[in-house]
Design brief:
The complex is a heterotrimer of chains A (about 110), B (about 120) and C (about 240). Chain A has helices spanning about 5-35, 40-50, 50-80, 85-110. Chain A is mainly alpha-helical and about 110 residues long. Chain A has a single domain, classed as 3 helical TM bundles of succinate and fumarate reductases, CATH 1.20.1300. Chain B has a single domain, classed as Fumarate reductase/succinate dehydrogenase, transmembrane subunit (3 helical TM bundles of succinate and fumarate reductases). Helices cover about 75% and strands about 0% of the residues of chain B. The N and C termini of chain B lie far apart (about 45 Å). Chain B has helices at about 10-35, 45-55, 55-85, 90-115. Chain C is elongated. In chain C, helix 7 (about 175-185) crosses helix 10. Chain C has 2 domains: about 5-105, Beta-grasp domain (Ubiquitin-like (UB roll)), CATH 3.10.20; about 105-240, Fumarate Reductase Iron-sulfur Protein, Chain B, domain 2, CATH 1.10.1060. Classes of the chains: A mainly alpha (about 110), B mainly alpha (about 120), C alpha+beta (about 240). The complex binds iron/sulfur cluster (SF4) (2 copies) and FE2/S2 (inorganic) cluster.
Chain lengths: ~110, ~120, ~240
């Protein structure tokens, strides 16, 4: 197993963590405001529709969350299931990127709907 | 793997476990969350339909739990970042307590607003 | 002065397996756990295998698991750890058992070597004594970071308390990484970059999850978890070409 790969994945996880720390605060605040008086599609889309700022925020958010989550799962799988090695690393990276793309696609939906 | 609680009962170990379990659940939930939001691609009515479907007690409880998990994972993550990047040492117990407080507060706020 | 009886369960066996055996030991004032083990071996069962040398907390050879937690037994008073007059003694976790309470420390020290735990003088790479004394002012941050970890006695308590060692057998563990961090901060040392390279990645400092079990248990009050965080921090900036 390449130790360098481990280092770079760790760095990626911490860099995404620093972004996510801020993004999750924004997200939690938005949730707390949005659920006042019940959650409705009109309210969500009223905020996101046509807003490039929200689109950019959610796109980066999805990318960071997808990668951060996959790297985390990689660590848990290595320690608790013994899934180690380059093959698994590649699989986790793919899963992370696919999740991120899926999230960005959803963000585009909220922008364009 | 022996699972003896005696050597694992210090607050920082519990903080690690909470961080790991919350992270695991959040990572598994993420694709589901994106799928739900992607309903918007099919227009406002589709998203609204999905949201109304979630309007039952079980899913409301699950949502509250997710908010608490997210807040807990955020708080635990700030603890790790403070240890790793700011070199915080002695204040470890305070960090754990503060983390627990933040996540509880977020969960309560969510609950209060929903009902 | 005798003060009743201690009921002591001692794990007996070898690499192939074993089971707890029970002994009754007279309780005494100011008795250490090591005193109890020694009593069993001298008075009850001479075949009991265990290890000690200095009896004053310097050599690091007497560590065992006492009532579920790894401890140095020569400096652990029975009255502090006994529960209802009982003691449960086992060999250190995460290490192969040789016999009874004696574990094989070889994997532990092999990892020190792998983490490049030996000092390499800058101006005398072949290990010779440098011609000039280095002046390292005690107040400098690097000197203080090195000082914080230098008193390690190599007892293995932290290593036996770390779940990541159990879950990831390649992991170098808290003691070896703490040692590496003291040397990374030693301005007289010439192997900084090589050492940083071997302690990076999935078998090195990046495997640590800051559970701080090592810091919690170290009998010398050392903070290996903090040392590992220091390595991570240094390597983080290294990736971006910043040397700190
Ligand atoms: S802080 Fe790191 S090295 Fe120490 S016990 Fe926890 S995982 Fe092991
Ligand atoms: S760091 Fe502490 S617990 Fe670990 S080997 Fe050294 S003295 Fe023992
Ligand atoms: S016998 Fe030397 S440290 Fe305990």
């Amino acid at each position: 197993m390449s130790t360098r790969g481990g280092t770079h994945l760790w760095v990626a996880q911490r860099v995404t963590a620093m972004f996510l720390a801020v993004a999750v605060l924004v997200h939690l605040a938005t949730i707390l405001v949005a659920v006042r008086g019940g959650l409705s599609a009109a309210e969500i889309l009223g905020r996101t529709r046509g807003s490039a700022a929200w689109l950019a925020f959610y796109a980066v958010f999805a990318l960071a969350a997808g990668l951060h989550g996959a790297i985390g799962l990689r660590g848990i799988a290595a320690e608790w299931l013994g899934w180690r090695g380059r093959g698994f690393d590649a699989a986790w990276l793919t899963i992370g990127l696919l999740t991120a793309i899926f999230g960005i696609y959803a963000a585009l939906g909220l922008y364009a709907a | 793997m022996r699972l003896d609680p005696r050597p694992r009962s210090h607050p920082t170990y519990v903080a690690f476990l909470v961080h790991r379990i919350s992270g695991l659940l959040l990572a598994l939930f993420l694709p589901l969350h994106f799928w739900a939001l992607s309903q918007a691609i099919n227009g406002e009515a589709a998203l609204e339909g999905f949201l109304r479907w979630t309007d039952n007690a079980v899913l409301k409880a699950a949502e509250t739990m997710l908010v608490v998990l997210l807040a807990a994972h955020l708080a635990g993550g700030l603890r790790v970042l403070a240890l790793e990047f700011l070199g915080w040492r002695s204040s470890q117990k305070t960090l754990v307590a503060a983390s627990a407080g933040v996540s509880l507060a977020a969960g309560l706020l969510f609950l209060l607003n929903v009902v | 002065m005798e003060q009743g009886t201690l009921r002591v369960s001692v794990w007996r066996g070898d690499a192939a397996g074993g089971a707890p055996q029970f002994y009754e030991v007279p309780a005494r004032a100011n008795q250490t756990v090591l005193d109890v083990v020694t009593h069993i071996q001298r008075e009850i069962d001479p075949s009991l295998a265990y290890r000690f040398a200095c009896r004053v907390g310097m050599c690091g050879s007497c560590a065992m698991e006492v009532n579920g937690r790894a401890r140095w037994t020569c400096r652990t008073h029975v009255k502090k750890v006994a529960q209802d007059g009982t003691l449960e003694l086992r060999p250190l976790a995460n290490l192969p058992v040789i016999r009874d309470l004696a574990t094989d420390m070889a994997p532990f020290f092999d990892k020190w070597a792998r983490a490049r735990g030996t000092f390499q003088p800058k101006d005398a790479p072949d290990g010779a004594v440098p011609a000039e004394f280095h002046i390292v002012p005690p107040a400098t941050p690097k000197r203080q970071a090195a000082d914080a970890g230098i008193e390690c006695i190599g007892c293995g308590v932290c290593y036996a308390s770390c779940d990541i060692v159990a879950w990831n057998p390649e992991y170098l563990g808290p003691a070896a990484l703490n040692r590496a961090w003291t040397l990374v901060n030693d301005v007289r040392d010439g192997a900084r970059q090589e050492r940083l390279a071997v302690v990076a990645g999935d078998a090195g400092c990046h495997a640590c999850h800051s559970t701080q079990s090592c810091t919690e248990r170290c009998p010398k009050g050392i903070d290996p978890s903090g040392a590992i965080a220091g390595l991570k921090r240094t390597l983080f900036w290294n990736v971006f070409g910043v040397s700190r």
